């Protein structure tokens, strides 16, 4: 077990341990309920759940047909959250997401404006193919993702809590896609890459999804229970060695910090929000795996999904075929000797 932060009494420690054991049982139930519907893709499911358990948003990237949309809708049911889906298209407008004001007229002829909430007013928002819409529409989500309210016609409207955006994105090489603005990418706690399924999982997909009955998601926990687990994760102690590892990793990924290789291949690196994401997700990963405190291995495992969308390569690095994943792998691989 990692150290308990200063000021934590033995009673507090026992309470945290008891709460963690209950949370572990709940997380296990969530994992089982998801696996009844989503076959294989354990890493994708884990990373997406970690983002939600940490209270953040996730961007799922992969070609069409890999069950990204199905995973998001399944999580809404399993976690007991209200959910809405927005299909992003080139003609989608910001008001289609946020809502708009309409004019009402009463029996006396008096006119007034009434706000009609858009689909963003939910607890789990599925932003499907987010990079098919224009940058202006993509940016409509920015305030909601960071500030948990939206402003329409000068008036602020609070969003339900908890509020999570799980967006799906097609690879940028596909036709009709727009790159997400860097400021919006930074709002996503993680970028989860969705690969093709393994052979055994794809065989199960063929057998179980083409018959007379298809598996459907079932609730595993309530929204209130999810909120309690999210609060518990923020109370988990983090050893100083893990804090130091997070700082070292994030700072090493920035050009101008003494790493000649990074100076050569990275044009801009992760900001402080990346360190915050690593702190939260490392705690969530520890709890997900039945531990009471995160380790440096958690930081290494989460480096790619948390850093890859917060870094950009130089033109020369891209021309040489260097990838962000290669750069991050070089930062987290323990050096020999």
From TrEMBL:
Residues of the ATPase AAA-3 domain: 57-190
Record's keyword annotation contains Transmembrane: no
Transmembrane annotation, as ranges: none
GO molecular function annotation: ATP binding; ATP hydrolysis activity
Pfam families: AAA_3, AAA_lid_2
InterPro entries, per the entry: ATPase_AAA-3, CbbQ/NirQ/NorQ/GpvN, ChlI/MoxR_AAA_lid, P-loop_NTPase
SUPFAM superfamilies found in the cross-reference section: P-loop containing nucleoside triphosphate hydrolases
Protein family (similarity comment): Belongs to the MoxR family.
Protein's recorded name: AAA family ATPase
Organism: Hoeflea olei
């Amino acid at each position: 077990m990692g150290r308990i932060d200063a000021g934590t009494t033995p009673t507090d420690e026992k309470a945290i341990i008891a709460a963690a054991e209950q949370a572990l049982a709940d997380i296990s139930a969530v994992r089982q309920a998801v696996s009844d519907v989503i076959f294989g893709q354990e890493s994708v499911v884990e990373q997406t759940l970690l983002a939600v358990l940490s209270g953040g948003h996730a961007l799922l990237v992969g070609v069409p047909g890999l069950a990204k949309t199905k995973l998001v809708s399944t999580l809404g049911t399993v976690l007991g959250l209200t959910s809405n889906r927005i299909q992003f298209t080139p003609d989608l407008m910001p008001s289609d997401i946020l809502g708009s004001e309409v004019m009402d007229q009463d029996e006396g002829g008096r006119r007034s404006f009434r706000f009609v909430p858009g689909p963003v007013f939910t607890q789990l928002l599925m932003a499907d193919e987010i990079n098919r819409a224009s940058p202006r529409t993509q940016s409509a989500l920015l305030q909601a993702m960071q500030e948990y309210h939206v402003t329409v016609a000068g008036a602020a409207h609070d969003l339900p809590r908890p509020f999570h955006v799980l967006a799906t994105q097609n690879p940028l090489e596909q036709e009709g896609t727009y790159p997400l603005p860097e400021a919006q990418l930074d709002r996503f706690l993680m970028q989860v890459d969705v690969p093709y399924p393994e052979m055994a999982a794809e065989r199960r997909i063929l057998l179980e999804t083409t018959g007379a009955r298809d598996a459907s998601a079932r609730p595993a926990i309530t929204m209130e229970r999810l909120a309690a687990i999210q609060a518990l994760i923020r109370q988990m102690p983090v050893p100083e060695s893990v804090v130091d590892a997070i700082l070292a990793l994030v700072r090493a990924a920035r050009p101008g910090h003494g790493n000649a290789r990074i100076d050569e291949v990275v044009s801009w690196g992760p900001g402080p929000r990346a360190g915050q994401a690593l702190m939260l997700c490392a705690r969530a990963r520890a709890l997900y795996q039945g531990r009471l405190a995160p380790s440096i291995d958690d930081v290494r495992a989460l480096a790619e999904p948390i850093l890859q969308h917060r870094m950009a390569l130089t033109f020369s690095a891209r021309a040489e075929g260097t990838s962000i994943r290669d750069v991050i792998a070089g930062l987290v691989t323990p050096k020999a000797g």
